[in-house]
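Let us work through a complete example step by step.
Step 1: write down the sequence.
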Amino acid sequence: MEAAAPTTPVINLEQEKKEILNRYRGLLRSSRRKFDDDDKKMIRKAFNVAVEAHKDARRKSGEPYIYHPIAVARIVAEEIGLGATAITCALLHDVVEDTDISLKDIEGMFGKKVASIIDGLTKISGVFDASSSLQAENFRKMLLTLAEDVRVILIKLADRLHNMRTLESMERTKQLKIASETLYLYAPLAHRLGLNNIKTELEDLGLKFTEPEIYNDIDKKLKDTQAERARYIHRFIIPLREALHEQKFKFRIFGRPKSVYSIWSKIKNKNVPFEEVYDIFAIRVLVDSPPEQEKADCWRVYSIVTDFYYPNPDRLRDWVSTPKANGYEALHTTVMGPNGQWVEVQVRSERMNEVAEKGYAAHWKYKQGPGQERVEDPMEEWMKKIRESLSNPDSNALDFIDDFKLNLFADEIFVFTPKGEMRSMPVNSTALDFAFDVHSEIGTKCIGAKVNKKLVPLSHKLNSGDQVEILTSSKQTPKQDWMNFVVTAKAKSRIKEFLKEEKAKQIDLGREELIKKLHQNKVEFSDALVKRFANFLKLSDVTELYWRVSMGNLSNKELKDFIKVKDKKIENPQAPAQTLEELVSNKRGKSDFLVIGDSLDNLEYKLSPCCSPIPGDDVFGFITIHEGIKIHRVNCPNAIELMSNYAYRIVKAKWTSQKLISFLAGIKVIGIDKMGLVNGITQVISNELNVNMRYISFDTNDGTFEGNIMVFVHDTAHLTSLMKKLEKVDGVIKVTRVDTNQ
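Step 2: predict the structure and record it as tokens.
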């Protein structure tokens, strides 16, 4: 009997059209972001262009090709949490490479931004052709040069995830190539970007196609032991659940198996059979806490866990105090459970869990709490900005990424602590960089190091595999020359911060010292006098003068010479009219308004010390002869005189919106002197977000006290909020704002 000829499956085009539309609607429903009308139009237009461009193309599975871009767009929207621009690019990501539509056509239809992202995606796709060998390091470097917009990489990850989910229909050699690339590059990349769910799925799928027998064996054993595992987890959890309820926690507690890939890694690395991998599962405790309480609550839960089960002291991992570079926060501990079995327990807040599971998109509904303010390195700073952008679901988020380029994959070395903990550092890192990486406090006190048991200087460059022990001294402080050899952002920023604080202290000391010197010479101190003294010594400003005094670099002769001529150098505000008009005209510029922006250092204006204006204050600019434009508060003590006598030198001024710059503001606190009051006040200031104290002094007199505090704030709203909180401290009667030079 003759074999029947293979039949071509009948394609129901009408049915496919309905399915395509259904998938498109599913995409729109799945997005976490609200779209305005322009967004909807752009996405619909991209969908129509993609449907038309791919209308004759089919995937290896026989499905219409358009299913793929819609699925990628859905991952981008739902699992990564990006907005309309990224969804548009995901729908169009294969159009330029696979159809007649050119990049110019895309630019004409959707603009430069979409075209540039599509261009990046097209170039990435072309790196690996069918015959090329895997060169992930080159690929990483190329990602850096191409990825002017991080969405290029995030969309590429979504593309790869969908390809992995539909890899069954590919031939074996293609499966191996794509799965190997995924394990080698894409899964680690997802990990570095904080997309843990995507990373885990990529790893499992990668193993499934590279080592199907191993994958299926572990998967089967996990299923076979599921009932036994569930009983053990239930027994383990019972006492914890009761204790957590008693402590009034809002929580979820459950056990979950490790991924197949992570179990395989344990089997391979520790050379043990499946049955001897003790952490096949982990117990996870998620507490629903406000951001300011998260850290404390995590430790309270840890305390409850260790009340019932003995912890292995070498297996505690505190990523709550110092989050991983990709933003992961949690407490991990391994405890001795029933039947003498070690069990891993992970404790984190619901917010931390969302970050761990879903990466950047997780926090569009949360605001940053005090515990997440510290920026450890450029990666963390980048992540923090992304989270802040995503905190507003209505914003067209991630457009800010245009301003900076991705710098994740600087070449790395791996070095070890004395206890064997591995840390990754950039190439050319020194012993001092390592000290700051361990802890800022250790960095500032570092006097040297032992590398592989041998003593080395701070500037010693580390190599992969080095074991480093840091030596410290309580007398050590950061030095200016440290900046010449550190390479990590964390070390540089901490050293700069310390030097800046020290300089500020020295300048304050120098001012006090100069007041004493003038007093000894029977000269009354004033700001105007000090400015003339700085001009007399040809110094750039008075801070340089104070610095010289504090360093002991001011001679008595210089002071005596100035005192002799000080009264001859009085600035005459009634300068020749023509010259002054020209000067005012030049400094005023064409605009009626002086906009006070972020970069104070780069512009020709200064904030006047007589009233210390901060953003939010009503201000004006006053054009001086020698010092550019001075910004004064409208209610400055000198404002009326300046406005009435020199109206032609007044410039209207307004603030731009700024959150990153801190301004010095003075606060006076009056109250009843009682135990714990000062502690209460400093506690409020310490807990206030982004407020740093520069100076604090308290005087008491017959049961009353008066305190003067100098703090750095962002604007008047920030200052007002702090003052209201101080008013609530028990014993405080009155809180007022004062000028910083009082």
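Step 3: interpret the result. The chain is about 45% helix and 15% strand.
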